[in-house]
Design brief:
41 strands; 590 residues
Length: 590
């Protein structure tokens, strides 16, 4: 049930004998969801609450951290686990080829689940879904954001696009209210590509309410050559004149924009429809701010996604690759305060460590807090990328050559199976040749060996394969550039098909744990040392515990201290690499 409208807020009124239908239950859900989402949107805003950071694992793979965001309708968008995805596996990847920039977006998404028989449905449908799962949709797009909508939804006024091209976009925003004699800040959002030269722009025009010597407002910004960011905000601070209750344009007569991008120079006179009201006092400013802060203003941009990252792309014959990643380019994140009760008088030390997990293990985070010092340590377990196995096949095809002149002729084989079954495969071809009576195989461009001083006696021809993924077959073709002796040419093929890890590979990487001794006796208050052996992982650390509450104690080195009370107690070791992997030993206290 996608809830896009908050109003009207209606709830069920119950009474004895009321007939409850699907409409009533849907209204009950809608009432509570609408109020919760409306409160989220008005109280907190929209953006990332925690996590959801994006980084490039390699030039074709993105790592997206788990986390939660609030969208522009106040709905919670949750990504439960980190995602490691190839660009080709993400929705919208087909829009990226040919573009130097792409965006990774997040939005709310629902999925109907658990199909059941719909007995007595008034719609006539015999099947319905029993549950709706709330989740998220992550997708790629080469379409740049609608900057005015993004900034206005974030609370900015007077948003004006000053300049836009394939390499650079400049977007101005300025408050609609100011206090006479007070400070006034204008911002310009700069969005550029990684290879865009350093930006230098100057916007100049008459402004009646800003303190200046010539009555002009000048915004000038020169980017440092060392600047590596692709999205940032340039801020300009000014002082408003001592005027009261005055309405004015920011640039009433327009402004002159002078822009330099390396050797490119752009100059133009532009209209800037930005209006400002100078308030008579701070109290007047506060009153007008409260009046302007209405529902229409707060609920802007309901269809805007969360832009998790801006991707700088490299296009080549092999596909699209990631050059760099700008995390949360437009600042769509919610601020939060961290309140601490310990160590409030001084700074808290926070340290982190990262350990590598097997790809089939779940990511986890462990925290250790030292109350005495206020130190906090986070240990992050990140799964390694999923591995692949490869199935291979090879064989040869004899192609019968045409009679007569063979220069610039083409021959093809019948459709033959390559031996790896349906699906995409990688085919490499080689042409059988003779070199002084020795059999050779020619790979690649045969023109390399066409010269006076080149070795071998290579055939001047090119081979190619046409694969039919649905049928698991292929055809092999040969393009002859010159006369070939004989009436037959043999082409060898080598096929390779990537497959996910098989159970055999998984079993080889499975972690196991054993404790010695498994059974032992110890006297009351006596000590005993246990040892744990972890196999299948480089991380051999374990955590120890005694199952029974009064069964003694054991330290991190495996040294057990028996209790005063006789009995049989269970000692448990858990592998640090995977807490689900445990082993037990039993001790009898006499």
């Amino acid at each position: 049930m996608s809830n896009a409208d908050f109003f009207p807020l209606e709830r069920n009124r119950y009474f004895y004998g009321k007939l409850l239908t699907v409409r009533d239950f849907e209204l009950e859900q809608r009432y509570h969801r609408s109020k919760s989402q409306l409160l989220n949107r008005l109280r907190f805003g929209a953006g990332v609450v925690c996590g959801l950071g994006v980084a490039a694992s390699d030039d074709t793979t993105l790592l997206i951290e788990s986390g939660m965001a609030l969208d522009y309708q106040g709905r919670m968008v949750v990504l439960e686990e980190p995602l490691l995805r190839k660009l080709q596996m993400i929705e919208g990847q087909e829009t990226l080829p040919g573009h130097s920039t792409g965006y990774l977006c997040l939005c709310y998404h629902e999925t109907d689940m658990e199909p059941v028989n719909a007995v007595g449905a008034d719609t006539g449908e015999s099947r319905q879904f029993n549950m709706t799962r709330e989740g998220c949709r992550i997708y790629l797009t080469a379409q740049p954001p609608e900057y005015q909508g993004v900034l206005e939804a974030a609370g900015h006024d007077n948003v004006v696009v000053l300049y836009t091209s394939a390499d650079l976009t400049l977007v101005l925003s300025a408050p609609a209210l100011a206090c006479g004699g007070g400070g006034y800040e204008i911002q310009v959002l700069v969005v550029k590509n990684e290879k865009t030269p350093p930006v230098h722009f100057r916007l100049d025009g008459e402004c009646p309410f800003i303190e200046s010597e010539n009555g002009h407002l000048c915004l000038e910004f020169r980017e440092s050559p060392e600047e590596k960011r692709c999205v940032y905000t340039a801020s300009f601070q000014f002082q408003a004149r001592q005027l009261r209750d005055m309405d004015s344009g920011l640039f009433p007569s327009g402004g002159e924009l002078d822009l330099e991008l390396g050797s490119h120079h752009y100059k133009n006179y532009i209209e800037i429809p930005a209006q400002i009201h100078l308030c008579s006092s701070v109290a007047d400013l506060d009153a007008r701010t409260r009046t302007a802060d209405n529902l229409d203003r707060r609920l802007r941009g309901r269809d805007i996604p969360i832009y998790l990252a801006k991707l700088e792309l490299i296009n080549s014959a092999g596909g699209v690759f990631v050059a760099s990643v700008t995390d949360l380019p437009f600042g769509q994140a919610l601020d939060y305060a961290v309140h601490t009760t310990q160590n409030a008088g001084g700074p808290q030390e926070v340290t982190t460590s990262v350990r590598s997990l097997e790809y089939w293990q779940k990511p986890d985070v462990r925290a250790a807090y030292q109350p005495a010092t206020g130190a906090l340590h986070f240990d992050f377990g990140i799964p390694s990328p999923e591995q692949y196995d490869y199935a291979v096949a090879h064989g040869s095809v004899d192609l019968t050559l045409p009679g007569g002149i063979r220069v610039n002729s083409r021959v093809f084989s019948e459709e033959i199976p390559h031996g790896l079954g349906p699906g995409a495969v990688d085919i490499r071809l080689s042409i059988a040749c003779q070199d002084d009576g020795e059999n050779t195989l020619l790979y690649g461009n045969s023109e390399v060996f066409r010269g006076k001083n080149t070795p071998g006696n290579a055939i001047w021809a090119d081979a190619a394969a046409l694969v039919y993924p649905a049928r698991g077959t292929m055809r092999i073709g040969l393009w002859l550039h010159d006369t070939v002796e004989g009436n037959r040419v043999t082409v060898h093929y080598f096929a390779q098909k990537p497959e996910r890890d098989t159970s055999r590979l998984l079993a080889q990487r499975r972690v196991s744990l054993a404790i010695t001794p498994e059974f032992s006796h110890v006297s009351r208050r006596g000590t005993l040392r246990f040892e744990a052996e972890v196999t299948g992982s480089e991380d051999t650390r374990v955590s120890w515990q005694v199952r029974e509450q009064n069964g003694g104690s054991i330290d991190r080195n495996g040294i057990y201290q028996a209790p005063e009370l006789p009995g049989t107690y269970e000692i448990i070791a858990s592998a640090n690499v995977d807490e689900d992997i445990t082993a037990s030993a039993f001790v009898i206290v006499d």
